[in-house]
Write a structure and sequence with these properties.
Largest sheet: 6 strands, mixed
Strand order of the largest sheet: 1-8-6-4-5-2
Distance between the termini: 44 Å
Order of helices and strands: EEEEEEEEEEEEE
Shape: globular
Radius of gyration: 16 Å
Length: about 170
């Protein structure tokens, strides 16, 4: 691990995958410990799909599926730093428990600039977030039930919400 090279005067707004409010949340209907990270692991702070086995969660839909993701993968500190030289990880290792949230307010990094009220789209290859007008087409992505609840530039944190439908 390299020596600390940055000091901030204010704490970070959030980490991708953090809960963004005290609004109610809802999870994918699975029993306790029923969902686990798929082969290769599952990234937090992006969208996830329950695979055809009904148990594993990946950041891409099952083969041939074009449906919206099953929910957002929240950061519950189940990611592990597996490589000695890594400083941090947002990956849940294969076989570890995953919670998929179908409703709530969360922080995520957007690949596009966002304005409040825009629809949130999930990449069908990585689960990453982009925003656009509701009903529009985003190449390689599907619209989710979440909307942008804050503004951001591309590559910055945005608040996603199923409760705030600001227009």
């Amino acid at each position: 691990m390299p020596f600390q090279n940055q000091v901030s005067s204010q704490p970070a707004l959030a980490v991708p995958g953090d809960v963004a409010s005290l609004n109610p949340t809802a999870t994918y209907p699975a029993g306790e410990g029923a969902l686990v990270a798929a082969t290769g692991g599952c990234n937090v702070g992006v969208f996830g799909w329950v695979q055809s086995d009904g148990i594993s969660v990946a950041n891409a839909p099952p083969s041939g599926n074009t449906a919206a993701p099953d929910g957002f993968v929240h950061r519950e500190l189940t990611g592990q730093i597996n490589s000695f030289s890594d400083e941090a990880s947002l990956t849940i290792p294969e076989g570890f428990p995953v919670t998929v949230f179908t409703a709530g307010d969360f922080w995520a990094t957007s690949t596009t600039a966002a304005t409040p009220g825009q629809a949130v789209f999930a990449s069908t290859t990585t689960g990453s977030i982009s925003t656009a007008a509701a009903g529009s087409t985003v190449a390689g992505a599907v619209q989710t039930r979440f909307v942008a609840a804050s503004a951001c530039a591309a590559g910055e944190l945005v608040k996603l919400s199923t409760w705030s439908h600001a227009a």
